[in-house]
Amino acid sequence: MKVIIAGHYITQFGELWSKSLIDLMREAIKGAIEDSGLTETDIEAVFVSNMGSGQNDNQLHLGALASQMISGYPAASRTEGACASGGLAMIAAEQALLSNQYQTVLVVGVEKMNDADSSLTTKYLAAAANYTTESGSTFPGLYAILANAHIKKFGTTRSQLSAVAKKNHHHGFDNSQAQYHKQLTIEQISNSSLVADPLRLLDCSPITDGAAAVVLTTKQLKEQKRKRASIIGRGHGQDSLDLANRRSLIELDATTKAAKQAYQMAGLTSGDIEVAEVHDCFTIAEILAIEDLGFFKKGEGGKATEEGQTTYGGKVVINPSGGLKASGHPVGATGVKQIAYLAKLLEEKKFTRALAHNVGGSGATAIVHILSS
C-alpha cells in the first residue's frame, strides 16, 4: 500500500519572536491541508511531534491542541523522541494508515525554543541524553567525543568538518525559509569560538523556532496539478542511550539498522538515492550519517565533503535545505520538515529518489525514510 504525501508546509525557521507555539502549529496545519487540496474534514487523525513545550511553553497535551484547530476534532496524539520526534511521529502516522485504521492523516512538528531562557533550553535538550550516567554533559560535548573518535581512527581534519558547514550554508542561502542566509568560509568556521574541542560554534546547529506539517493518505487522489511524492521505505533503529554502552563511537548503529530496513522495504540501495536530508546537528553528525547510510565508505565522509561529492554535481546532494546547520533545528519540527522539503523537490522533478534521516540524542534513535516521485 502506497503512502502518498498529499500536502506539505514549512513555516519560516528562525528567531520568531512575534509568533507563539500555537501560531506556528496553526500555520503549518492550515498550510499543509491547503496544499493538499483536501478539506479539514478529510483529516481523520493528527500526530504531533514536539520535545520541549512542557518546559519552554508550560503547554502539554499538544494532540488536543492540534485537534481543536481542525474541523471535526480528529483523533490526536503527541510523540516525543528528542530530536527524532518528527521521524517517530511520521512512523506512527504511517503505521496507522497501513493498518487501515485511517486513510488520511496529518503530521505536524513544532518547537518554540527562543522564548525561554537559554539555560532552560540547554537543560531540556540535555534531557535527551542519559540523565543518570551522562549528567552534566552537553550535546556539543557528547558529539565532540564522537568527533575525536573519528579523528583518531581516520584522520578526519578540521577543514573537513568546516567543509560540512560551508556547504550547508551555501545550500541554505537559496532556501527562503532557512534561519540563516549567510555564506561562510572555511576560515570563519575553523576559527569560530571553541565550544567542545574539536567542535566550534559554527559546527553547531542553532536554537530555532518553527513548524512543519505533512498530509499523508492512502487514497487515490483526484487529478492534481503536480504528481505527489510517495513514501516507499522506512526504518527505525535504536542503540544505547549513553555513549559508554555503545559498540562503536565511529558509527551510529541505530542509523545503519534504520537504513537497512528502509532500503530493503524500498527495494533500493544507497546508490539509488540522489538527494538526502540528514541529521547534521553538528558537522561530525553529517560525516557519520553519510557513511552510516552507505553513501561513502567509513572514514571517507569528510574527504568526500571536502571534494564536493555531497553537493550539486557530486555523488549525492546532502542537505539541500541547508540542513539543521543553516536551515535551523526546531527539534520537534525537524524530522517532519525533512520529509516536506524533499517532497517539494520531488514534485518539482529535481530528483526522483530521496532519503530523510532523523536522529534522537547522540544517536540512540534513528529514523530513515525513502521517498519516490
Short description:
With 373 residues, the protein is an alpha/beta fold. It has helices at 21-36, 53-57, 62-67, 85-98, 118-126, 139-154, 158-172, 186-190, 253-266, 283-292, 301-306, 323-327, 331-347, and strands at 3-10, 45-49, 75-79, 104-111, 194-196, 199-200, 210-217, 230-238, 275-277, 317-318, 353-360, 365-372.
List the helices and strands and how they pair.
Blueprint: E1 3-10, H1 21-36, E2 45-49, H2 53-57, H3 62-67, E3 75-79, H4 85-98, E4 104-111, H5 118-126, H6 139-154, H7 158-172, H8 186-190, E5 194-196, E6 199-200, E7 210-217, E8 230-238, H9 253-266, E9 275-277, H10 283-292, H11 301-306, E10 317-318, H12 323-327, H13 331-347, E11 353-360, E12 365-372
Parallel strand pairs: 2-3, 2-4, 9-10, 9-11
Antiparallel strand pairs: 1-7, 1-8, 4-7, 5-6, 8-12, 11-12
Report what the structure shows.
- By secondary structure, this protein is of the alpha/beta class.
- The chain folds into 2 domains: 3-117 and 208-217, Peroxisomal Thiolase, Chain A, domain 1; 137-205 and 230-372, Peroxisomal Thiolase, Chain A, domain 1 (3-Layer(aba) Sandwich), CATH 3.40.47.10.
- 37% of the residues lie in helices and 18% in strands.
- It has 13 helices and 12 strands.
- It has helices at residues 21-36, 53-57, 62-67, 85-98, 118-126, 139-154, 158-172, 186-190, 253-266, 283-292, 301-306, 323-327, 331-347; strands at 3-10, 45-49, 75-79, 104-111, 194-196, 199-200, 210-217, 230-238, 275-277, 317-318, 353-360, 365-372.
- Strands 3-2-4-7-1-8-12-11-9-10 form a 10-stranded mixed beta sheet.
- Helix 7 (158-172) packs across helix 10 (283-292).
